[in-house]
Amino acid sequence: MRNLLYLLLSLIQEYLLECDVMLYNFFVYITTNKKKTTLYVGVTNSIKSRLTQHYFDSQNEKLTFAGKYNCHYLIYYEGYEQIKIAIDREKEIKKWRREKKERLMNSINPNWDFLNNEIV
């Protein structure tokens, strides 16, 4: 019964993630490296494209922070309709200590599962 409940909750979460991506124009997101030791906070109008850019940079020139530290694993995001609000939120989160960012991420993604494949 517990496994069935977990499966149902996972399916609901996946559906809601897909709905979020379709409803919003801008996103604040947090990525990490494979060992989850480094966090990167960014803002974009296309998470999928931005993750591709971060991955490409990590495998090639390493010109950006995300590329240099291999932060192309999505672990958290929020959707917004207006870019100014998204940018303000990104700036707010970037000022936080790691512990506060972890509490934010844990509230939505307690296992820090990589969400890259859930983005449409």
Query: What is the helix tally?
Result: 5
CATH fold title: GIY-YIG endonuclease
CATH class division: Alpha Beta
| CATH architectural group | 3-Layer(aba) Sandwich
Largest beta-sheet details: 3 strands, antiparallel
Series of secondary-structure elements, N-terminal to C-terminal: HEEHHEHH
Overall number of structural domains: 1
Summed over residues and divided by their number, the pLDDT gives a mean of 87
Strand-pairing-aware structural class: alpha+beta
Which residue ranges are poorly predicted, with pLDDT under 50 across at least 5 consecutive positions?
none
Q: Between the first and last Cα atoms, what is the distance in angstroms? A: 30 Å
What's a quick, concise take on this entry?
With 120 residues, the chain is of the alpha+beta class.
Explained architecture:
The chain is an alpha+beta fold. The chain has a single domain (2-118), classed as GIY-YIG endonuclease (3-Layer(aba) Sandwich). 52% of the residues lie in helices and 18% in strands. The chain has five helices and three strands, in the order H-E-E-H-H-E-H-H. It has helices at 2-23, 47-59, 65-68, 83-95, 98-108; strands at 26-32, 39-44, 73-80. The chain has a three-stranded antiparallel beta sheet, sandwiched between helices. Strand 1 (26-32) and strand 2 (39-44) form a beta hairpin. The longest helix has 22 residues, at 2-23. The protein is globular, with a radius of gyration of 15 Å. 25% of the residues are buried. The mean pLDDT is 87.
